[in-house]
Design goal:
The radius of gyration is 31 Å and the shape is rod-shaped. Strands 8, 10, 13, 14 and 16 form a 5-stranded antiparallel sheet that branches. Strands 9-17-15-11-12 form a 5-stranded mixed sheet, with no helix packed on it. Strands 1-6-3-4 form a 4-stranded antiparallel sheet, with no helix packed on it. It has strands at residues 6-12, 20-28, 35-39, 50-54, 64-65, 70-76, 85-92, 100-104, 109-113, 118-128, 133-138, 144-149, 155-156, 160-165, 174-180, 185-187, 203-207, 219-222, 228-235, 257-260, 264-270. By secondary structure, the protein is mostly beta strands. Helix content is 0%, strand content 45%.
């Protein structure tokens, strides 16, 4: 290099996704006067992106990997004394496969409604791959409850990091597990999701709810305003859970609302006098 150098170069992976790594093989610049700055990203103007500053001789800097698809280097020298400079190679790292960050229902959870959609959240944007399958099976017997082509309309959310699986039928009461083919989802660099191939990767229990009427007697009350009202109490028990979805039909037009505590749900319905 020469005196009074002020040089900047940005390197970006060819696919725009893969991480980069810089590996030094030699480093010799004037100590405390000439500097190499390395930034994690495509800019050298953001101080928060500066990850390393090197100067001097006799020590080869450690390799540095980007967290994204770009690394930027800035080299400056003063007006006197030059050295040999540095040598390094910059290469793309293998694109990491997409990973699941959350499952709904949670793995190992219980008492999920049979109507529940299955939701996978990834650490990056993914797309479904037609011809790959998701299987929902019964724990113990391994009975197949449903097989879904990832390219079908039962799978939504492609192009985002959240995939929703909508089974064609409600899941019966029991313990279930989900299997997903390797490569059923890919990120934008075509890296394959590893899949869920073990019974214990995603298990949860579901239960069917049949709710007929109120487990209590409707009573007519006089509110402070003098307007008549009625209420019914539904105990929170093993059959009816506060998390379940349910529908209530009234025999006349009304504007019901629900008050909930730890023991029961109170459904309050105005009555036209």
């Amino acid at each position: 290099y020469v005196d009074n150098t002020n040089y900047t170069e940005t390197y970006t992976s060819s696919d725009g996704v893969s991480n980069l790594e810089i590996i030094f093989t030699s480093f010799e610049v004037e100590l405390n006067y000439d500097y190499l700055y390395i930034y994690d990203g495509a800019t050298t103007t953001d101080p928060s992106k500066l990850v390393a500053t090197y100067t001097g001789t006799g020590i080869i800097p450690a390799s540095i990997s980007s967290t994204g698809a770009s690394l930027s280097l800035k080299f400056t020298s003063d007006g006197s004394v030059i050295r040999q400079g540095f040598k390094a190679t910059i290469a793309c790292l293998g694109n990491p496969a997409p990973l699941i960050t959350n499952l709904s229902p949670l793995n190992g959870s219980v008492n999920n409604a049979g109507t529940t959609d299955l939701i996978l959240t990834f650490n990056e944007v993914v797309n479904p791959v037609a011809g790959k399958f998701i299987e929902i099976r019964t724990v113990g017997t391994n009975a197949l409850l449903e097989q879904i082509d990832v390219g079908s309309t039962n799978i939504t959310g492609g192009g985002t990091n959240t995939i929703t699986i909508n089974p064609s039928t409600n899941l019966p009461t029991g313990d279930n597990y989900v299997l997903i083919n390797t490569g059923a989802f890919q990120d934008i660099a075509n890296a394959d999701f590893a899949g869920l191939t073990n019974v214990n990767d995603w298990t949860f229990s579901t239960r069917s709810i049949n709710f007929d009427g109120f487990a209590g007697t409707a009573l007519q009350l006089v509110e402070p305003t003098g307007q008549l009202g009625a209420y019914a109490e539904v105990p929170n028990n093993a059959v009816f859970d506060l998390q379940d979805e349910f529908t209530i039909e009234f025999n006349e037009p009304s504007l019901p609302f629900i008050v909930k505590d730890d023991n029961f749900i109170t459904i309050i319905m105005p009555i036209v006098a």
